[in-house]
Design goal:
With about 350 residues, this protein is an alpha+beta fold. It contains 7 helices and 19 strands. It folds into 2 domains: about 140 residues, Probable inorganic polyphosphate/atp-NAD kinase, domain 1 (Rossmann fold, 3-Layer(aba) Sandwich); about 150 residues, Sandwich (Tumour Suppressor Smad4). Strands 6, 7, 9, 10, 11, 15 and 18 form a 7-stranded antiparallel β-sheet that branches. The termini are far apart.
Amino acid sequence: MSRRRLLMLLKPIDVYSDSQSDGPSRITNPQSQFLLKELQMLHHLENRLKVHNDAIIFCQNILCRKPVEWKSIVLNNLSQPIHDVDLVVTVGGDGTLLQASHFIDDSVPVLGVNSDPTRAEEVEKLSNEIDATRSTGYLCAVTVNNFEQVLDNILEGRTIPSKLTRISICVNSLVLSTYALNDVLIAHPCPAAVSQFSFKIKSDDQPCSPLVNSRSSGLRVSTAAGSTAAMLSAGGFPMPILSEDLQFMVREPMSPGETSSLMHGLIKSHQSMDATWFCKEGAIYTDGSHVFYSIQSGDTIEISSKAPILKVFLSQRLQTTVKKLEEAYLQKKEILCKY
């Protein structure tokens, strides 16, 4: 078997840095109930950091035994698009994979390792004290428990990646360089401010929906992969992860009136959404808050699924849910697709 080139991208540990700087030693009065909870949280965060670091070392030791040329980089140190590798392995959680996807085109597959999965028994034990959830790892196919097995299957060609749809965004006819794997949020930079915009769905450059004028807290558009995240929390519905459609929802519309039925719907794979922004300030947030683009009044925004796909190795569990979601999704699609 020829040697393959592999890049390992590591979740930054600065999310733990504040808790690590002082440590449990700063608890001066352990009799205080509040401080006991704080101490418990600090121990929890310390354990999360250790589990993550152990996962990195474990995966690196596995790679040392494989016929691959590899190197590892902390994700925050990555600044250029990824080329000349056969596989990217992310070690962290969904956020790590999402951030990495912004540097990857449609030629390089990605394998996500959930380095710190949530432990059901821990959550149950500590539910009355702290939030003990760890990483969901929805898009991560493996943990340390099955990393070597799945990696061998990939290197030997027994496993192929799935093709996930991403979102393309054009502002004033210029395509933004970042494609969204999860979702896009168009909103005022101040979360308490009202967003004012209009939008319509079009197909083959011809409108196929009424023009909707909205005053709300913003507009969210998600891929199928992102439909189980913020979109679902806001009242949307999960989509089969291989769907090429996009789901949109106006957040907290003010007096939608006759257009209320148009505040939530689908952008089919052959369609796009045209929006116009009417506030002095605005921002387009891509896959969270870290990547955003400023917009201003009069800017036009086109959103579609015409972005390069992302090749991702998915867990067997996630792949089996596709069939279960298909029937329910087709029913939803029939109701929501009025145009």
